[in-house]
Every structure is written in structure tokens, then in C-alpha cells.
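Exercise: predict the fold of this chain.
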Amino acid sequence: MFGYTGKLLCADLTGSKIKETKTPEKLARAFLGGRGLGAALLYKELEPNVNPLSPDNVLILMTGPATGTPLPACPRWEATTKSPLTNMYLCCSVGGFFGAELRFAGYDGIIVRGKAASPTWLSILDGKAELHDAGELWGLTTEETEVAIRKELKDKRARVASIGQAGENLVRFANIQTDSRSIGRGGAGAVMGSKQLKAIAARGHGGIEVADEEGLMMLMRELIAEMKRNQAVQEFSKFGTTQFIDPVNEGGLFPTRNFQAGVFEGAGRINAETMREQLVKKDTACYACPIACGKYSVVAEGEYANTFVEGPEFETLWAFGAQCGVDRLDAIAAANMWCDRYGMDTISTGNVIGFAMECFERDLLSKRDVNDLELKFGNHKVLVELIRKIAFRESIGNLLAEGVRNAARKIGRGSEAFAMHVKGLELPAYDPRGAWGMGLSYATACRGGCHLKAWTLSAEVFAPKYDRFSTEGKAKLVFEKQNIRAAMDSLGVCIIGGRAIGVEEMVRVLAVTTGWNLNVKGLLKVGERIYNLERLLAVRDGISRQDDTLPPRLLSETLPSGPAKGIKLGKKEFNRMLDEYYGIRGWDVEGRPRREKLEEFELPKLLEG
């Protein structure tokens, strides 16, 4: 199998057993790797109705055929499991160096089952895997854990994927941290914590045998040259994702104070230019990537001095900024740093804090409920303290650690109407009332309220080809973008590098790595097959049409200012898009893939046994 190591590592923590198995070629050809192959293995490995925090849940870490090759912007790998936040299928894509190092160590992926009797960590060194006692690591931050494991291995180049105190305490949106990157959404870190698996370290000196070495090097040179010419890519080199602050805010869809408005008056104080000037010290990059979109930031003085963090990214600037009404860059950077150290998703954390602020201002939470914190929009002083309380599940933090959906159910009294989530996954930094395609994207994303599975703003706002306040063409737009992104995540290609690596280039990536000669139509069909498989996983967990919706606030309220002022995305318009989308997908009126659609992609045959 060119482009693959041909091996998976299986760790049974309950029995402290480790074994190797072959990477299944039939499934790899059908689902590529990364997200697609991870979803296929999860479908086969995971029993329906499993409690996500029980030993019966399965955690799969999977690379793609491009991961670890010299191709630029191809460092991605995927974590797949059942989410403790949404109680359904979860996939998370991340870059950095861990995926490449895992491949150099001899494996395409890792399947983790069971629960260790005591805190444990796993090392994978040049084809040798071993479980270790993590008693002294339990209770450490992700940063401290990484330092300790590298010291024990006597190798500063070992790559570590670890959880912090949030994962240990089963915060439902705890993440896994690696190379200052986050496997950030849906609580994969809590799954590791429930298994008493503190960390996984990988180090290898092997290589990846590809089908066409000369063709790969030629493609690498072409892509690097294109990335240097491409203005959109160069903007990421300069500003990273923070460049979106101003255009999203000016477009009137920058969610402010828990989605009560779409324009944040403090955006200029937290935008890309301000951050570059005040905080950024250097640019950082993932494995073999010339873009260097990461920004290492330092707060050197003031009440948030000694803040060192890679970021904040656009979503984090929003989550602790506009969502909470805060326009202090230093406070946002500090909040980002502590989320990374404790191991918590910044999007969900900022979202649930903004929700709590609105509850407090509406007198649904009292001062006694929040430990005398002044939990009002704009109060930057409460961010770091609330993050600590959530990570350690202290007082009000114990409620917020359950996620916004569960917190609203407990608070009640109408708070469910402004709990901003889809299927339990907190919404990110784009208000769909200002771009209706994003509403359909959120509602039908395979893991809940996610923007990454179909980022329609590129076609609705940034380079508009569609009327953003219309349903026209949005179902097809979301369908096409979801399929492309499924293929991209499965190959190991980064969405930012995707500005230079389009579908035609992805076809070439697949050809030079694996030798498989798909055309554009064939690759997009693989993406569609993956999305149908992910829907099968969701349906198996009880997801149906009633779950493919948006929070009441987004369907019934209008924005008070900006270009979207007075425009309403109502239920009728939303359902029109959803019906059209189901039709294009070949799903029935409840959102279930029809038998003929499953047979078209040979899913029953591929998934049997």
C-alpha cells in the first residue's frame, strides 16, 4: 500500500495489551484515511448506544496518505470517537507534527479501547509501543506533561498528544493538546480522561514509501511556488486566521454578547493588525508547511503578564472577545493560554461563558450561583477565573463544564432559547442570520454546530457568488463544500493550504502518494461516501430531522444593527433549504440516507462484518 505504513496500533487499556493489525486496504481505498477511514473503523468497532465516557467507547487517531510527506500544508490527522458533549459521532482535525511522527514510527493510526486501572501514558518509538505509569503526570497541565514525557524519553523531538486537568475532570468539551495545537471540539480530551490515558508520545525515524517519488517532489515544488504567489495564502502567513475579524464584523455577522448582535464595537481593538502589533513575536508552522499561519504571542506586562501562547486564532478572539463583550487582547490571550494548559476547547468555553453572562444579566443566575463573580458582558477579569473553575469543576464551573445545552436544561426558565448550539456543540464565530448558507451548514454538519465542514462565507461574503440573504443555491453549495472537505480531511490536507491545493491538486496528491488514479468526480464521490457514512453514525445515535435545526434565537429574532439589520432567517426559509439539501443528498424527509444511496456507495458491503 503506497502512501500508507500498512499498520495500525491497537491498545486495549483494560487488559494492558498492545497489538498491531493491518491497515485495511479495502476501507482505505473507499475512505482514503484520516477522517474517512477513522469513521469507517468507528462504525465497525463501536456498538450503538454506548456511553461516551464508558470504557466501551473507542478513540481512533488516524493519519491520511499525505500526512508526513514533504507536500506542503499536508500535516493533518484526525481524532474520531463518540462525543461526551453531543452524545454522537465526533471527528476532529489537527495539524502540528504528531501525525507525521506517528507515521515515521511505523503506524497509520491508533485504536484505543477500554480503561486503564490507573493513570497511563503510551509511547510509540520506531515501531515499539509501551504503556507507562502516569501517576506522577496526573494533575499536570498539557505543557507540563509534554515537558515531563520528553525528559523521560530523553528526546526533545518526541511529539506528545496529552490532556490537562479538564480532560481528567471529564469536562465535556475538554480537548487533546499537541504541538500547541488543539484537537478542540466535542470533548475528545474527556474520552481520554475517562480511559485514564494521560498522553500518547510518538517518535520515529522511518519513512513513507510513496507511489511516485519524482512526481511527489515535482508537485511539492509547484505547490510551494503557488503558495508564494497566492495572495490569499500570503495573508495567512502574515496574519493567520485573525484576518477575518474585520470583514466578518463589517459584514454584520460577528456574534456579539451571546449572539444578541452581529457587530462588535470593540473589534478594532482585537483585530489582526492590533494583535500583530501588540502581541505577536514570531510565526509558527506545522510539519513541512511554508505558510506559517500560527502566531506565537506574548503579554509582557500588566495584569496578564507572563502570558505565552500560540494564538489567539480568530475563533478564540471571538469566543473570549465579542461573545463575552471583551475588547482586551491581553485578557483574551491569557484565557487562550489557560484553556490550552488545562486542555479545553476555546470555542465552547467562550460560548458557555457568554451564555452564563446573559443568564446573569437576566437574573437567571444569582451572585450566589456564580460565587460573587461580576458575571457581566465586558468584564474581562472573570475570564481566567471562570476557566479555572470549569477545568476543575468548582461551583459554577461544574455546571458550565457540562456544555451550554446541558447547562440550559438545568437552569431552565427560557434559557434554552439562547443556548447557542446545534446538537450540543456550541456555535462558532459566524451568525447565520448574516449568511444563510452558514445556517444550513451548522444544522447539517456531521458533528454538530461546526463551521469547518462547509464554510460558505467564501461564496456568500468574501467573494460573493450568492445572495447571502437568500436560500437560492445554498443547499447545493453546502453539499459540495461538505464533500470536498471530507476528502480533504481524509487525505491530510489543511484547509488553509486548500487555497492553493484545490480538488484537482488533491487528485494529484492521491496519485503520487498511493498510485490510485481517481479523477475529480471520483474524489468528490469519495467525499460524498464519507459524508453518508457519517450520517449513518449520527442516525445510529438517534439523530434525525428534528436535530438538524438552529437555536430559536437565530430563527425568530432579527439582528439590531449592521447589514443584516431587520432580516430574519425564519423557520419557513430554513426548512426550504433543508428539504432541498436532503433531496440532493438522497436522504428521506427525516434525514436518513435512502437504501439506494447507500448501495450506490457500496456502504452495506464495505461496513459488513
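Check your answer against the key: The domain at 7-203 is CATH 3.60.9.10 (Aldehyde Ferredoxin Oxidoreductase;  A, domain 1).
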